[in-house]
UniProtKB/TrEMBL annotation:
A single GO BP: nucleoside metabolic process
Domain named Nucleoside phosphorylase: residues: 61-314
Any single Gene Ontology cellular-component annotation: cytoplasm
Leading EC class: transferase
Source organism (scientific name): Sitophilus oryzae (Rice weevil)
Protein name per its UniProtKB record: Purine nucleoside phosphorylase
Binding-site list for phosphate: 67, 98, 118-120, 150, 254
Positions annotated to bind a purine D-ribonucleoside: 235, 277
Pathway annotation: Purine metabolism; purine nucleoside salvage
Superkingdom, taxonomy of origin: Eukaryota
Length: 324
């Protein structure tokens, strides 16, 4: 049995645990003796069918909310919030600041789905599972994916609260042989060997710089290279110095595998990092990064970021950027 609850003040609906747990779904995922468990195209279709039965339109835009950035989902008009624990085959959020719900609605007039909470490798999920929602978004019809994250600033010119438009990444986990596309390739999603040299849409980055300037954020934005480590610990001084030498401007614990999965299935991708802490590269410093600080900075910057995301989205679609 399924129940929609109306949310105060938003004119929307909320589907939470317990309200639809009775919905039976059959697990058709496969276990390969050599490589272990994987989702199949068919099992993902079950998730898609479930979501289609709850939401009366198809989203064109996807937004992944980073740590402390769940409030971006408040940009949606007429939200329909569906808790991850109601959705067939969906992993569960375990991290503070990641609520664990898909929120459908209209952002700048465009049908959009926000992931209020992402999945991380350090939670114990393999990368292919962390990225499962991206394939779900693709199957629902999402063409443009906005990925956001909280990251430590490696570039000494970055200040806490700055925004970095990601122009490229260094896939350190991939260097170690860990990649979300590992395992059998399903050509219905994309090719076995996808290119990654244009993973971040250049036109959107150009527009993002203009929009940031127009709304008064011009002096707080940068372009840069993001890298991801597995976490959950923050980095040592020696590790951070090494990352700086490699050419990374910001470090986090997510995003890279999501970008790879999204590009594999031909989505248009835009990513920004909120610099929530300065990476400590001096042994003398007594400062310590913390998840609380990361979430606080997200909260402090939420109004500017909401305004930025709404305006950027509007202009992307007005100018048909990245429409394939
Ligand atoms: O989900 P993101 O990448 O935004 O979160 C970063 C990485 C860790 O999950 C967390 C550490 O505070 O912030
Ligand atoms: N790995 C990593 N992730 C972060 N997320 C937010 N800040 C940081 C950081 O300093 N390091």
């Amino acid at each position: 049995m399924s129940t929609l609850k109306f949310m105060n003040g938003h004119g929307g609906a909320k589907i939470t645990n317990g309200t639809i747990n009775g919905d039976a779904h059959v697990h058709k995922d496969v276990f390969h003796p050599e490589i272990g468990h994987r989702y199949t195209y068919e099992s993902l279709q079950e998730t898609v069918e479930f979501l289609r039965s709850k939401v009366p339109y198809l989203p064109e835009v996807g937004v992944i909310c980073g740590s402390g950035l769940g409030s971006l989902a408040e940009c949606l008009d007429n939200p329909i919030e569906i808790s991850y624990d109601c959705i067939p085959h969906f992993p569960r959020s375990t991290v503070k600041g990641h609520v664990g719900a898909l929120v459908f609605g209209f952002m700048s007039g465009l049908p959009t789905v926000c992931m209020k909470g992402r999945f991380h490798y350090y939670e114990g999920y393999p990368l292919w599972k962390c990225c499962m929602p991206i394939r779900i978004m693709k199957l629902l019809g999402v063409s443009h994916l906005f990925i956001t994250n909280a990251a430590g600033g490696l570039n000494p010119s970055f200040r806490v609260g700055d925004i970095m438009f990601v122009k490229d990444h260094i896939n350190l986990m991939g260097f170690a042989g860990n990649n979300p596309l590992q395992g059998p390739n399903d050509e219905r999603f994309g090719p076995r060997f996808p290119p990654m040299n244009q993973a971040y849409n250049r036109e959107i980055i150009k527009l993002a710089n203009k929009v940031a300037k127009d709304i008064g954020l011009g002096d707080r934005v940068h372009e840069g290279v993001y890298t991801c480590l597995g976490g959950p610990n923050f980095e040592t001084v020696a590790e951070l110095r090494m990352l700086q030498m490699l050419g990374a401007d910001a470090v986090g614990m997510s995003t890279v595998h999501e970008v790879i999965t999204a590009n594999h299935c031909d989505m248009t991708v835009f990513v920004f990092s909120l610099i929530t802490n300065e990476c400590i590269v001096e042994y003398e410093s007594l400062a310590k990064p913390s998840h609380e600080e990361v979430i606080d900075v997200g909260t402090q910057r939420e109004n500017s970021l909401k305004q930025f995301v709404k305006e950027l989205l509007k202009q992307i679609f007005e100018n048909r950027i990245g429409t394939k």
